[in-house]
Specification:
Jelly Rolls; 8-stranded antiparallel sheet; 2 helices; mainly beta; 223 residues; 2 domains
Length: 223
């Protein structure tokens, strides 16, 4: 069994030296996770094939869209549906995690939205840490949004997490705050805030955390 790999967002972001440069990091099922440097303002554009999830890691960005404008700060996310015109910008160096489907539209059985009517809906933001801290029961992941056919969930807890023995799909565990230890048959990782790993489908693992730990889980799930 291959050893797990640890990813550190700050170390990855340090390699970005040009505004809106991007590094593709890993895939979780059909979802591609990238890190990009938002500084300046992009041109207006839209994606007819992919939803885009913006997740601010560092700094502040303004996300403008046909469905309204929102300002995103660290640990805040917003999903721009396919077909919605938008652009992102920041006056400072801001680091953003971008999640979107990494497969072609032909793999999605024609689920394409070619356009969106301006004002049809409203762009919404959500704070991942605040959402997790509002949960009353530890160790239970709460869905916050979907990216294509993958669900993003948050949870908090201290101790051993009751993970299923195996799942057929990849699972990404991201530490928002606190510390986590992931043990698999081939390795053991210690993760701190801003670090994550991906468990391949079928892998067994044990997860334990310290006090005050908040986790994000991303995995494919049938809708």
């Amino acid at each position: 069994m291959d050893a797990l790999q640890k990813f550190n967002v700050s170390q990855i972001a340090a390699r970005l030296d040009r505004p809106f440069s991007m590094i593709n990091i890993t895939s979780v099922g059909d979802v591609l996770l990238s890190v990009y440097l938002c500084q300046g303002v992009l041109d207006w554009h839209k994606h007819i094939d992919n939803d885009e999830l913006f997740w601010v890691y560092e700094g502040v960005i303004l996300l403008e869209s046909e469905w309204g404008n929102i300002r995103l700060r660290p640990a805040e996310i917003a999903l721009v549906p396919k077909g919605v015109g938008h652009r992102s910008g920041s006056a400072m160096r801001s680091i953003v995690l971008l999640l979107r489907c990494g497969l072609g539209a032909e793999r999605k059985n024609g689920r394409r939205r070619l356009y969106a009517m301006p004002g049809e809906a409203k762009l919404k933001s959500l704070n991942l840490i605040a959402t997790a801290q509002a949960l009353t029961i530890p160790f239970e992941f709460h869905p916050v949004t979907w990216v294509d056919e993958s669900v993003m969930q948050v949870a908090w807890g201290e101790g051993i997490w009751p993970l299923p023995d195996r799942t057929p799909h990849d699972r990404l565990f991201f530490v928002l705050g606190g510390e986590a230890t992931v043990r698999s048959p081939g390795s053991m990782l210690h993760l701190h805030g801003g670090e994550f790993t991906v468990l391949p489908g079928g892998m067994t693992a044990q997860l334990s955390t310290t006090q005050g730990t908040v986790l994000v889980l991303l995995m494919h799930e049938e809708m």
